Amino acid sequence: MASSNVYADLPNGRKIPMLGLGTWNSKQGLLKTAVMSAIDVGYRHIDCAYDYQNYGEVGEGIRAKIAEGTVKREDIFYTDKLWCTFHHPDDVEPACRHTIEKTGLEYIDLWLMHWPMAFKRGDAQYPTDDKGNYFCEDIDYTETWKAMEKVYEKGLVRAIGVSNLPLEWLQRVLDVSKVPIANLQVELHPYLTQVELVEFCKSKGITVTAYSPLGSPNSPDLDTNRSVPIDDPVVVEMAKKKGKTPAQILIRFQMQRGINVVPKSTNATRIAENFESYNFELTEGEMAELLSLNKNMRFVKYHESFNSPLHPFSPENMKK
Fold it and tell me: What share of the chain is helix, strand, coil (3-state, %, to 5)?
């Protein structure tokens, strides 16, 4: 069993565990137990979001382990994300306070802007017309960022960051930021290595977290005819050769790039196996082989909201 976590340094002096438990698309009713199992194994980083609508259950799992005396609140690094319907500056702080109240965790360790596009304000999580097109607001994500900085200054969150921003869009936040961007969370795996973006973040002192590190085989955006990295013959053969699982290979690949990684699972055995990714290394040649698999293939596109002018991966914006 892995003996301890490895941490990355955030720009404000705090530390983030490089391996966390992802919770996207996890079945409700299973997450409390999954979070508790993860903490028992050694995980100290839990990644969640308002959009997942399971943060209450995640909070229950964390609080249960705190009540047992297994961990203290300060031992846990909890990441959450601001949803697109709360991008108006007046809605940012109330959204944060809602998440804190719902999880019962007193504060959020890392709070990310989930996507740069803003949806219509209101109670509807996915405000759409009868054709499925999203109602979008004309709110620039840099204005949302400034409101997040105020939340940070009030101590409700310990660090703030962004998610799903390309390099040029990230630079726009850097240009207006007064509080350091602590983290960028983006899709990363051997089919989408985003080397230039990762190196840019490192040069600016921004930590990077990989979501969908296995290739998001359950993503609703996935073309059923496409393969995913976890099934790639190179990955499968490498795992067999090293006596590891394909998932462990893909997790370790990101960690050796200096990237935090948040694979999701509610299966106790897989949760424990993934944590073992701390306990071996890939050779320089193996790292190069995995990097060579890059196809610039994105599995998480959120195509339903392509009508927003601020959707970073819409066909229109991808042409630029």
Answer: 40, 15, 45
